[in-house]
Write a structure and sequence with these properties.
Order of helices and strands: EEEEEHEEEEEEEEEEEEEEEEEEEE
Strand content: 35-45%
Number of helices: 1
Number of strands: 25
Distance between the termini: 46 Å
Length: 368
């Protein structure tokens, strides 16, 4: 028997888990950018990646800061390394592993090809450079953002024109591993996803505390219909590695790029038989147009293709609903204002728009 739907797990996580669940098709998987035969490689380099089933060829370019050396001074400490996660059934405490969330596996498959980007105590930039500009949309996985990590994601169209990153959306966030392998058995610790801030110039992700968890994930979704030539991830870490022998211990994240799921819904149950929400033009968009961080009024812009009824739920960092706004939305762009009560503490908050056309979410930081 499958475990309970994700909605029942919300109170157990630090931030509401946003998982994309493919209704009724367990074996579905997306096509990922792969890094065949790529070993741990330090310094500036280029990876000839593959994307079987993807819309174009891909080069991965790593730009390092060559002044960042291991603590022992022997060699440059910024690198990339292939890190593919494979799920081995069953998903339960008796079989702890790094990738075992069945709802996520339903959408993306049992194999998750990731690439480590290690910045150690410095900043590096990793770029996915597409052979031809693509307009099919795609998902960018960012995992293991912790211990004060910070990064910003930017995208560019033809002729190096910067893309307005508020047109992207949060496709999902949560924890890849429900039953973690600590090396000494099962751990039920939940890795909280980072805060996510969308702005015109970039999408900023920042760890929400100083704990080293393994392994949160955030899915950033590039919309279909927008030409993208390249995506860059500028990552800043604070922890160096002691030596080349311990090269993987510095601050690092893992990245992945996949095709878009064709049908998906948030907080679904793959055995419920509920109808899937088509992934396409009818999915609403949700973005923040007020300042972020913000101490007062929060303004949301919601884009819909046709008139719909929708609910905008506001959740605090512990997953508790703090507000609910019902609206009749007209075709086009709609704005909704929400003013937090003075008693609400500072921290990361999340807005989730729920409608018959699908659910979308966005997070921001409240200050006092």
């Amino acid at each position: 028997m499958r475990r309970a739907p994700l909605l029942r797990l919300r109170t157990e996580v630090f931030i509401p888990t946003l998982l994309l669940v493919l209704i009724g098709t367990r074996t579905s998987a997306q096509s990922f950018v792969e890094y065949p035969g790529h070993p741990a490689t330090y310094g500036d380099h280029t990876i000839e990646a593959t994307w079987s089933g993807g819309p174009t060829t891909v080069l991965v370019v790593f730009d390092s800061d060559e002044s960042i050396l291991h603590d022992d001074g022997n060699g440059q400490s910024q690198r990339t390394a292939r890190n593919t996660l494979n799920h081995t059934p069953p998903s339960d405490p008796g079989n702890p592993q790094d990738y075992d969330d069945l709802d996520l596996i339903d959408v993306y498959g049992t194999r998750l090809p990731l690439l480590q980007q290690m910045s150690a105590n410095g900043t590096s930039t990793l770029t996915y450079q597409f052979g031809e500009p693509i307009d099919t949309g795609f998902d960018l996985f960012v995992t293991d953002v912790d211990t004060a990590d910070e990064l910003v994601v930017r995208a560019f169209g033809p002729a190096e024109v910067p893309i307005d990153m508020t047109t992207w959306s949060l496709g999902g966030e949560g924890d890849l591993s429900l039953y973690k392998n600590t090396g000494g058995g099962y751990s039920d610790v939940v890795a909280p996803p980072p805060s996510v801030t969308f702005s015109v110039s970039g999408i900023d992700l920042q760890a929400i505390d100083s704990t080293n968890y393994n392994r949160s994930y955030t899915i950033l979704r590039a919309p279909s219909g927008s030409l993208v030539s390249r995506v860059e991830v500028e990552f800043t870490g604070i922890q160096n590695s002691a030596s080349r022998e311990q090269g993987g211990t510095g601050s690092h994240i893992y990245l992945g790029v996949s095709t878009l799921p064709e049908t998906s819904t948030l907080y679904g149950d793959a055995e419920s038989g509920a109808a899937a929400t088509p992934r396409g033009v009818d999915l609403p968009t949700l973005r923040l147009v007020s300042r972020n961080p913000s101490a007062g009024l929060v303004r949301f812009a919601i884009g819909v293709q046709s008139s719909i009824e929708a609910e905008l739920g506001i959740f605090d960092g512990a997953g508790r609903r703090v507000a609910s706004i019902q609206r009749s939305l007209r075709a086009g762009v709609n704005e909704i204002d929400w003013t937090p009560e003075d008693t609400l503490p500072a921290g990361v908050y999340l807005a989730r728009l729920h409608s018959a056309h699908g659910d979308v979410s966005i997070s921001w930081v409240r200050t006092r």
